Amino acid sequence: MDLDTFGDQLDRLRGAALADVAAAGDLEALDERASHYLGRKGTLTALLRSIGAIPPEARPRAGQLANAVREAVEAAMAARREALAAVQLERRLAAEATDPTLPGRPRRRGSLHPLLETSRRIAEIFGQFGFVVYEGPQVETDELNFQLLNIPEEHPSRDLWDTLYTDLPGHLLRTHTSPGQIHVMRATRPPIRALLPGRCFRYEAVDASHGFEFFQVEGLMIDEGTTLSDLRGLLDEFAHAMFGADRGTRFRPGYYPFTEPSVAFDVRCVVCDGTGCPACGRSGWMTILGAGMVHPVVLRNGGIDPERYQGFAFGMGTDRITMLRYGINDLRLFLESDVRFLEQF
Ligand SMILES: [Zn+2]
Question: Which residues, by Cβ under 5 Å, contact ligand 1, an ion?
Answer without folding.
Answer: 269, 271-272, 277, 279-280
